[in-house]
Description:
Layout: H1 3-30, E1 33-35, H2 48-62, H3 67-86, E2 89-91, E3 93-95, E4 98-101, H4 103-123
Antiparallel strand pairs: 1-2, 3-4
Helix pairs in contact: 1-3, 2-3, 3-4
Amino acid sequence: MKKKTRLRILLYVVAFFVLYFLHDYLAGVWGYQINKGMSFGVNLELVQNWLMVIVLAVNLYVFRGKWGMMVLNIGALVNIMDRVKFGGVRDYWNFMGWWVNNINDWVIGVGIVILLIEIWKENTK
C-alpha cells in the first residue's frame, strides 16, 4: 500500500474518532433530543438507515479519492452510529425551541462544499 494511501486512511480514522468523541461531549454538555427523521425532519423510519448506507456506498465509489467525500463520510458515519445506538440522531443545537442539528450535519455540509470545489477545479483544467 502506498504511503499516501496509508496516511489518508490514518487521517480518516483519527478524524472519525475525534468527531465521534466531540459529538458525544457536546450532546452530554448541552443535552439532546433524538431526531428519528432524516434531514429537515423528513421521516422515512423504515428505509432511512438502509438508504443512508446505500447512498454512502455509492458516493464512496463515485467520488473515491476526494477530500470532500472523506469529510462528508466522516459526518455521515457518526450519524449512522447514532442511529444504530439511539434509534435516531442526537440533535443538541436548539434554535427558538426547535432542535436544529448537530456538529455532524455541519461536517457533512462542509464536505459537500469541499467536494463541489474539487469537482469544479477538476472540470476547469
